[in-house]
Amino acid sequence: MKMVIAIVQKKDSNHLQSALIEAGFRSTRLASVGGFLSEGNVTFLIGVVDPQIPMVMEIIREHAQSRDQFVSSPAATDLGRSTMPVNVQVGGATVFVLPVEQFEQF
Amino acid sequence: MKMVIAIVQKKDSNHLQSALIEAGFRSTRLASVGGFLSEGNVTFLIGVVDPQIPMVMEIIREHAQSRDQFVSSPAATDLGRSTMPVNVQVGGATVFVLPVEQFEQF
Amino acid sequence: MKMVIAIVQKKDSNHLQSALIEAGFRSTRLASVGGFLSEGNVTFLIGVVDPQIPMVMEIIREHAQSRDQFVSSPAATDLGRSTMPVNVQVGGATVFVLPVEQFEQF
Ligand code: NI
Ligand code: NI
Ligand code: NI
């Protein structure tokens, strides 16, 4: 048994949670703030038996990995105001796997 | 030294916290959301020396274990509306015990 | 790699976070409540490689340790109301270092 602690962006958290539930993993969500920009994120606690760690990792990677996204940004040009697509990085997950010595459910 | 991470229902959290304090255990509470129904719950972090793990487990079990509860539920019958007691499951605790390599208080 | 879990008073948390960032440590903040008086505090999760544990400990100690502070307190005296400086203890940090078996960033 391990405890997976995954910190992901808030915008990825609902999709990730649904994917975890679909795969049969219960998770606990904690609202958190972090990173150099102090943006809001979500910390997931997931109890996982050892052989399922790779599957959980894959689900997290699939639903929360850092990726580029084009967003419209208002920009002033010679011809007046227009919107220019800007490439921003979204998502990203930081994942720790901690050993668990005892696990109980009451 | 171990870190006990206990996830319990919000409605059980105050009683559990009082019982932990009474027994001399300091705990830190984090508001959390979890389970398949995404209900609000509370995640406790409790630093515990090894010989006291069974005592902490017993306090958690006593105050937060899953149990049946009868609640009144409005129901329509042939003779009009009445309230029928309905058996629902409340409470429940998920507890992880993690090893601690170093502990400091400043 | 270790996970440092540090619980500090809310009033020390911003200064501590800045100091951690300045030293190059990313941290995740969770709002928490704890201690015998149930005051609001902050739980930091910090992923740290082993040789940097002493540096992180020193930063936490420097910015969050328990210390005396004189605060003005209204007091009634024979000569009418005045303010008397009162010595109160502020700050304080509880720090756990947990082993990490796997660490991933996506
Ligand atoms: Ni999906
Ligand atoms: Ni009781
Ligand atoms: Ni400073």
From TrEMBL, chains A, B, C:
<dbReference type="InterPro" id="IPR011322">
    <property type="entry name" value="N-reg_PII-like_a/b"/>
</dbReference>
<protein>
    <submittedName>
        <fullName>YaaQ protein</fullName>
    </submittedName>
</protein>
<dbReference type="InterPro" id="IPR015867">
    <property type="entry name" value="N-reg_PII/ATP_PRibTrfase_C"/>
</dbReference>
<dbReference type="Pfam" id="PF06153">
    <property type="entry name" value="CdAMP_rec"/>
</dbReference>
<dbReference type="InterPro" id="IPR010375">
    <property type="entry name" value="CdAMP_rec"/>
</dbReference>
